[in-house]
Structure to design on (229 residues):
């Protein structure tokens, strides 16, 4: 399995390579919107520089902050698990759901809503925290679970692929990725050790998983089936 050093850069490249419009779900990154905007660290700020991107979110107040900070950009207050605006259906060549899937009550309903946004031959880009990251096990040995207060589930590579398949997708590519760490000590110790492990075993050692999927055709992708088996 590939290992990616920079998740935002990977998403930016995915957006840059899209042949058409892009829908970015969870664009406000609530409740951290104001903090990230002030730091210039909001993912949506990067994406709108490289593609024609529409931001979707369910937080009206956070979207108002984005509209003020990014005048001229397009934002939609919408929950894709409910009725979508008619003009959004089948419009986007790429839908990005970065660090969203682990928050939703019903993953299959959410993913099917993403599919309704996709144009024919469109792609879905998903990122989630990685249940197989060794850092999670090390924290548990210290009696700790470090997790976002709104997370509802964990995904490993196989469970992510199966969740996508259950919603009618086939996985085109999947990799693990590193997340920014809080301080130089983490960078100097943990990630180099994980890189060494990856060189030896090619396992999913990163903090997160990234995947690209497409709506499945009648015959499933043999590559996706091989990864899932």
């Amino acid at each position: 399995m590939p290992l990616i050093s920079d998740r935002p850069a990977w998403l930016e490249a995915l957006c840059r390579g899209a042949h058409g419009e892009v829908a970015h779900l969870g664009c406000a990154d609530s409740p951290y919107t104001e903090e990230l905007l002030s730091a210039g660290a909001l993912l949506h700020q990067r994406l709108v520089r490289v593609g024609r991107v529409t931001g979707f979110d369910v937080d009206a107040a956070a979207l108002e902050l984005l509209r003020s900070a990014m005048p001229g950009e397009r934002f939609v207050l919408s929950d894709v698990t409910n009725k979508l605006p008619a003009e959004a259906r089948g419009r986007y060549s790429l839908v990005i759901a970065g660090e969203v899937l682990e928050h939703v009550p019903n993953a299959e309903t959410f993913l099917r809503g993403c599919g309704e946004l996709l144009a024919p031959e469109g792609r879905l880009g998903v990122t989630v925290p990685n249940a197989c990251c060794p850092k999670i096990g090390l924290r548990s040995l210290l009696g700790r679970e470090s997790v976002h207060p709104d997370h509802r589930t964990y995904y490993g590579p196989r469970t992510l692929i199966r969740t996508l398949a259950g919603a009618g997708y086939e996985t085109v590519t999947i990799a693990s990725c590193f997340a920014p760490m809080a301080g130089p000590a983490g960078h100097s110790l943990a990630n180099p050790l994980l890189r060494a492990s990856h060189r030896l075993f090619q396992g999913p050692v990163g903090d997160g998983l990234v995947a690209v999927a497409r709506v499945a055709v009648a015959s499933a992708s043999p590559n996706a089936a091989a990864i899932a088996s």
In short: The longest strand covers residues 118-129. Strands lie at 3-4, 22-25, 53-57, 74-77, 92-98, 118-129, 169-177, 208-215.
